[in-house]
Write a structure and sequence with these properties.
mainly alpha
Length: 98
Amino acid sequence: MDFFFVLFFVGKWFYKKECLGFGDVRLMALIGLYVSIDLLFLTLFLASVLAAFYGIILFFKNKKSEAYPFAPFINGAALIAILYGYPILDWYGQLRGF
């Protein structure tokens, strides 16, 4: 949970504006209370991938960069991690040879 607080403050210091809302930090903290730490990091990874795909689609569609909320991607990724998290981690472990 402290990781997200650090990410919030480092992003604010580096970009001189809020790049990750505190609501996103609280949402990840609540999800962290429900799932294990490995599923929490899987949630963060999946949310980032989903948001990146969405951002790329928006960029090519609108030809401009705009901010969009991260919470819907966190929620979707948490749902995927809760339902399919351990099979995804097992698959990744087999890929890595663990």
